[in-house]
Amino acid sequence: MDNQAKSTPAVPPLFIISGGAGALGKHVARIALSQFRLDDVEVVVVPQVRTAGQLAEAIEQVHARNGIIVHTMVDPVLRESLVRRAAERGIVAIDTIGTALDRLSAMFGQTPLGQPGLYYGQEEAYLERIKAIEYTVEHDDGRKPHELHEADVVLTGISRVGKTPLSIYLSVLGWKVANVPLVEGIAAPEQLFQINRRRVIGLIIDPAELADHRRWRQQKMAHTAGRSYTDPSNLYDELDMARKLFRKGGFAVVDVTGKPVEESADEIIALITRWFKQQVDFPGRRTDR
User: Fold this and answer.
1) Superfamily of domain 128-276
2) Does the reported pTM lie above 0.70?
3) What is the 3-state secondary structure (H, E, C) of the chain?
């Protein structure tokens, strides 16, 4: 019996060739590789392959490493060229998208757009919205004031004026929102006056509606703030304090009285987009940091 250890053949690297970022091909490759008992297989992403010259370079790179191609080429001309060039070089090329495009094209009666990067663009927009929600939750109720400069919008106002619901609603639309509560006798954070004043929105509300909100809060949450929390004269003082602070900072003011969250949010978005000429679909793109 031969006691010499049998050598294990080297596993060839997988090259993800894509006209976009290559995220889809890499994801598919990782799912497939998980089904095999193999040591770490090298996965090399070759992204943004959009010309014949780039494709030729990619094929030579794979050939030099005796690799395997996994591709997600949506451009029909480049996809056909890749298949041909790989065959000429004796390279295994696995098409993860071509068959699906052909079948769907026949079913829908439409020719695929053949534009790379469209899926990544949608995924990127989704991820930006997730980041906006995470930022907003982390910066609710005055938390992390040293990071206010990172916000697309900063909402400020007294208790029960609707800062948190507005913040969350805006974040779902992709806006990074921080909110800062105003409390009599407690100074507002200095950072509120150091950031671009046009990104700060002061919220006010009719005293009677504010009193209703606070009474509801006391009943539902066993609030222990005492009578002054709903006392009409105290509410007027708090609102007056807030208005003075808004004037001091030069902040825009939005009256939320009787408005659903959606209406107040639309008003805030209109103010910010008018001042900064931002695209609402991608509100996180900042030019004033």
Assistant:
1) P-loop containing nucleotide triphosphate hydrolases (3.40.50.300)
2) no
3) CCCCCCCCCCCCCEEEECCCCCHHHHHHHHHHHCCCCCCCCCEEEECCCCCHHHHHHHHHHHHHCCCEEEECCCCHHHHHHHHHHHHHCCCCEEECCHHHHHHHHHHHCCCCCCCCCHHHHHHHHHHHHHHHHHHHHHCHHHCCHHHHHHCCEEEEECCCCCHHHHHHHHHHCCCCEEEEECECCECCCHHHHCCCHHHEEEEECCHHHHHHHHHHHHHHHCCCCCHHHCCHHHHHHHHHHHHHHHHHHCCEEEECCCCCHHHHHHHHHHHHHHHHCCCCCCCCCCCCC
